[in-house]
Design goal:
Number of helices: 10
Largest sheet: 6 strands, antiparallel
Structural class: alpha+beta
Radius of gyration: 22 Å
Shape: globular
Length: 239
């Protein structure tokens, strides 16, 4: 993938120790990790694929994990373009690895963490032994499920959470309903996607379609609410 002065080239790093996997006819296949060579303004660096998978050759990546290379290449390109803008053109490739891990964070994880933290704080103030049996820290349990359980177990939970939480949660549910459904792997909404203005514009239009043009102000408010939560997460993780 090439954008302006950015080139992303996938390759298998055969200079590293391979993994030997049992293949056909009792032989062992050697597999190597997927890497990307990034060229930006005549400077180069290499970065390992976030997913830490091994392959026999590059074609195996396309066959076994369709969409992986395109997804990671897109993420890396977006990061460089975005960082170049916010750094006033002083962005250097030397810090791309840490930025990659940060910007690859799924938006849904950020929002789930935000609401779960508020729920945990409120539930800790409830005088009930049931607060000790709920798995607040489990990634397998969605916030909406936990909140539903808390509503049934703790009658005072909504009062403890407050009216501001009620508004944010309502906006969150509407946001989830407006998301484009995509069953393809390696296509989730990441932090860097959120920073690309075209995504927030698309979300706003999706909300308009769902809620009607008469709710234009409400649609803008929902996008603003999600944006505030996501920016708050980034500020707290950058410090």
């Amino acid at each position: 993938m090439t954008t302006s002065k950015i080139t992303i080239k996938p390759y298998l790093n055969t200079t590293l120790q391979p993994k030997e996997v049992k293949g056909k006819y009792k032989y062992f296949d050697r597999k190597y990790p997927l890497y990307y060579q990034i060229t930006f303004e005549r400077k180069n660096t290499q970065i390992k694929s976030h997913y830490n998978m091994y392959f026999g050759d590059l074609q195996d990546v396309y066959n076994e994990e369709p969409g992986l290379i395109e997804f990671e290449s897109e993420i890396l390109t977006h990061i460089i373009c975005y960082e170049k803008v916010i750094s006033s053109g002083t962005f250097e490739l030397s810090g791309i690895k840490l930025k990659y891990e940060k910007y690859l964070t799924p938006i849904n994880n950020i929002l789930e963490e935000y609401f779960k933290k508020k729920l945990v704080k409120a539930a800790s103030q409830c005088y009930s032994e049931y607060r000790y049996v709920l798995r607040f820290d489990s990634f397998d349990v969605r916030f909406t499920t936990l909140f539903g359980a808390c509503e049934k177990l703790f009658p005072e939970i909504k009062q403890l959470l407050g009216t501001q939480f009620g508004k944010e949660y309502a906006d969150y549910r509407t946001y989830l309903a407006a998301l484009d459904k995509d069953d393809e792997p390696y296509s989730y909404l990441s932090l860097i996607h959120w920073h690309m203005n075209d995504y927030k514009t698309q979300l706003y239009h999706n909300l308009l379609i769902k809620m009607g043009t008469q709710n234009e102000a409400k649609c803008k408010d929902i996008v603003h609410t999600m944006d505030k939560i996501i920016n708050q997460y980034q500020v707290s993780n950058d410090t």
